[in-house]
Specification:
With about 325 residues, the protein is an alpha/beta fold. It has a single domain, classed as Metallo-beta-lactamase, Chain A (4-Layer Sandwich), CATH 3.60.15. Helices cover about 35% and strands about 20% of the residues. The protein is built from ten helices and twelve strands. The protein has a seven-stranded mixed beta sheet. Strands 8-9-10-11-12 form a five-stranded mixed beta sheet, with no helix packed on it. Strand 8 and strand 9 form a beta hairpin. Helix 7 packs antiparallel against helix 8. The N terminus is likely disordered.
């Protein structure tokens, strides 16, 4: 029997309402070709959601901190920016790109966590009426590392590229969950328990089923551990239960299928945890663990040599107290 393509008999009520929300929003969204979006450094991954993808690299004078993904989400009345890249200059370029897409006001700047490659462009978005939103632990975490983040960034990108860069703390924080209405679409922000960091925040777009995970999701770029490997491994199965049409990683391609996108990261973290626990049980040293644990993952990740040893060190330090 041929199904009527207009029928909603085989759709859940949630799917139907999501489709209706998208249909209502489409006429209000900016008209921009994919070629034009690419020219200004962003790509549209779903109606009204544009992503800039960072490089797989350490911060240096050539990329001036452009190593993480940034996103803007456009509603019928306002815009939200999710992460602002790693310097004031990059934030200013992102702001200019958004201005070519829409003239709606940027109401919210949402930071997914504290790391400088995600927050140091914030200053380019300071304006009357703009709220900076983050995890309730973000202010303390950023304040504690502000001096070192700024000093290290200046040293790596140079004085000219660094000019104007500063720490901008959240003006609004999320303890559990928070809904932000952009007009025609609602973003749900959720504060997560300690995993990649102790201040990870995720963003879900109700209109398109898009989930932005920040650095709770790495792809191709090796994951970096600055929180709790135990907590991260506990959180991944929880995240996998969340329905999403697509996800945006903090480092990786502009969009990925869900939940398959997180399988490689889960394998990497499980491998480190298994190897390190075995070595602790056998009385091995942290130095030996750093040299041998998780080496089966070598060749599967970019920047393995740059970050893996630090991940093993963090895991050993945590797991030896289990």
């Amino acid at each position: 029997m041929t199904k009527n393509p207009q029928s909603t008999d085989n759709l859940s009520r949630k799917d139907f309402l999501r489709g209706a929300a998208i249909a209502a929003l489409l006429p209000l969204l900016p008209r921009i070709s994919h070629a034009e979006a690419d020219r200004i450094g962003v790509a549209e991954i779903a109606p009204g959601i544009f992503v800039h993808t960072g490089q797989y690299a350490l911060v240096n004078s050539e990329n001036v901190g452009d190593i993480s993904n940034a996103c803007c989400i456009i509603g019928s009345s306002a815009v939200a920016v999710v992460d602002t890249s790693g310097s004031y200059g990059l934030g200013k370029a992102l702001h200019a790109a958004i201005a070519q897409i829409t003239d709606k006001p940027i109401r919210y700047v949402i930071n997914t966590h504290m790391h400088p490659d995600h927050v140091l462009g914030n200053a380019a978005f300071e304006a009357e009426g703009t709220e900076f939103v983050g995890h309730h632990k973000l202010p303390a975490a950023l304040s504690a590392r502000a001096e070192s983040y700024l000093r290290n960034t200046r040293d790596r990108v140079g004085d000219k590229a660094f000019a104007g860069t500063k720490i901008v703390l959240p003006t609004r924080t999320v303890t559990d969950a928070l809904d932000l209405d952009l007009g025609g679409r609602v973003l749900t922000l959720r504060a997560r328990p300690t995993a990649h960091t102790d201040n990870d925040l995720t963003i879900s777009d109700s209109a398109t089923g898009t989930l932005l995970l920040g650095d709770l999701l790495f792809s191709d770029h090796i994951p970096t551990l600055d929180g709790s490997i135990v907590g991260w491994l506990k959180l991944i199965p929880v995240l996998k239960q969340e329905a999403a049409a697509r996800v945006v990683p903090g480092h990786g391609p502009k969009t990925m299928n869900w939940p398959d996108a997180i399988d490689a990261e889960q394998r990497y973290l499980e491998t480190i945890a298994r190897d390190v626990r075995a070595m602790i049980k056998d009385g091995k040293t942290i130095e030996l663990a750093v040299a041998t644990a998780g080496q089966s993952e070598k060749g599967k990740w970019q920047l393995f040599e740059e970050h893996h040893a630090m991940n093993v060190t963090a895991a050993f330090t945590e797991l030896e107290w289990e």
